[in-house]
Specification:
This protein is about 25% helix and about 15% strand. By secondary structure, it is of the alpha+beta class. It has two domains: about 5-80, Ubiquitin-like (UB roll), CATH 3.10.20.740; about 85-235, Alpha-Beta Plaits, CATH 3.30.70. The chain is globular and about 55 Å long. The model has no long low-confidence stretch (mean pLDDT about 90).
Amino acid sequence: MSNGDDVKTLIIDDQEVSARRGQTILEVARENGINIPTLCHLEGLSSVGACRLCLVEIKGSNKLLPACIATVFESMEVSTDTERLRKHRRTILELLFAERNHICSVCVSNGHCELQTLAQEQGLTHIRLPYRNPNLPVDASHERFTVDHNRCILCTRCVRVCAEIEGAHVWDVMGRGINCMVITDLHEEWGSSTCTRCGKCVQVCPTGALFDKGKIGSEHPKYPDFLPYLNLMREAR
């Protein structure tokens, strides 16, 4: 680094670390082996701060900031695992489970679901909120894949990977509030859309909302780690 001002020194969970100017708290934390839970964030895609599970405390501020988009500054002091944060994360997870129909025992992604894993890690044993139980469609019109809107958490990973990596712009978001849902093209069936059949959206989906028809349960792991590799190859070219 040619300019000393490009190097920032900060403290995360009582650990002194260094960072580059413009880095996010999440990037620096992961570089130093500090775990901050996320759902909407995925390395290789743009960060949107949608799920708010990566909220952290900053000394001197009453606000909780999303670590995936908040950038570091000199002498910043960050706490990533306090009782306040754990309470917020459990509440967010409860809201996600209550909003739609996440019944793990009958889900195709049981055992391979990031929402399920986070709930276990955060000690979520029951849901205190009333379930909304919306009547949402399942679109199996695609020859290879299915979208079950009952499992969707609106992380928009599918939207971003389709636009930023594949460049197809098939997926988008429609509606607001409880009526919000991801759609293909102008709300056409997936099988009738301009989908390129690449399957990247299925691989990055953190739940059972997007899945391969030919694989279920233990046969249905997903491999989103291809994104950093694709970006590295793109930069090399």
